[in-house]
Amino acid sequence: MNNLIMLVTNAVTLSEAAGGLFDFNATLPLQALQFILLTVLLTFIFYKPIGKLLEERETFISNNLAEASAKLLKADELCEQYETQLKEAKTGAQDVIAKAESEAKGIVAQEITQARADAASLIAQTNKELEAQKKLALQQLETQIDELSQLIKEKLLGKVVL
Fold first, then answer.
1. Are 48 and 64 in contact (CB under 8 A)?
2. Nearest one of 6, 12, 3 to 31, comparing CA atoms
3. What is the pTM of this model?
4. Residue 23 pLDDT > 70
5. Which residue of 2, 104, 112, 128 shows the fewest CB atoms closer than 10 Å?
């Protein structure tokens, strides 16, 4: 290792002495070796860990996106199911309401029919009572007329007439 450092320092001093930017002497292969060594070191120390991190992050993001899209699909399915159930519930409720309305109309019609029948029987009974009272009143009037005519006869004739 010390030999390598000495070679590098010697090469640097030689290149300074020559004064050229690219001297094609021993420094060029040394610089190429340094570049390759730097590239290998950076690859293992820097690029591979960062590449792993980027790959892990990309995997994490893609997994989260896949999971989110799966959950979104499931949510859409649940939403469709709930909408279907809601439509069925509304239809069922409308059926129940229609049935209740028809039952209520039937009950009202039955009550009206019953009330009319009760009213008709009450009218018939009242008519019978009125007829009975009329007959009674006529009988009482006839009795009173007979009594009055008897009184008139007695007053006119002066005695009791049978």
1. no
2. 12
3. 0.43
4. no
5. 2
Structure tokens at 26: 């021993």
Q: Which residues contact 25 (CB under 8 A, 6 or more apart)?
A: 11, 14, 15, 18
- Closest alpha carbon to 103 in 115, 111, 114, 93: 111
Q: How far apart are CA 54 and CA 125, in angstroms?
A: 103
CA 60 – CA 52 distance, rounded (Å): 12
For 36, phi then psi, to 5°, come to: -65, -45
Q: What is the largest CA-CA distance in the chain?
A: 192
Q: Is the pLDDT of residue 111 over 60?
A: yes
The single residue listed with the structure tokens 């039952």 is: 103
* All residues at 6 or more sequence positions from 26 whose CB lies less than 8 Å from its CB, including other chains: 7, 11, 14
Q: For tokens 């006839």, what's the residue? A: 142
Residue labelled with tokens 């009329």: 134
